[in-house]
Amino acid sequence: MRLTLVLFIIMALFNFFGCAKKFVNKTPIGQKFPSVKGQSLDKKKYNIPEDFLGEKVLFLIGFVQNTQFDIDRWTIGLDQTSISVKTFELPATQGLIPIYFKTRLDDSMRRGIPNEIWGGVITIYKDGHKIQEFTGNENPNNSRLVLLDESGKVLFFHDRGFSVKALNELNESL
User: What CATH number matches the domain at 23-173, 3.40.50.970, 3.90.550.10, 3.40.50.300, 3.40.30.10?
Assistant: First the structure.
């Protein structure tokens, strides 16, 4: 009985503190993006990819806070090359801790960026593990760029950090 209680406590702590599952990196080109729910920083709810069917959309996906540096380089590159595609940042976490503190995390992000771009950031908490499993989460500081076609399938994917070559390849995919 005592051993069972100790094991239960250990398992609960393990789960509560969000010991993230590791997923091997993949290149999901041609695959349908997993169905996930999120909310933008301006509090609009999204079902992804369903809400974007019929149009191409680019997701800059980050799994950890340090990914923001890579996402910022991509954002600057996209702006400087005038690539015209609807683009969203998707912070996609997993574990109970981020879910529990999601309001605080979203408020922190809102304080760090101008309110006119809040609509371009869709946070994925509960379903973040689906995206991580879909793309892999090795080297989590690298963003995952996912360009979806009109049917929600991946046209372009990159997970090795910003490069001009990858930016040009993305442009060619459009």
Answer: 3.40.30.10
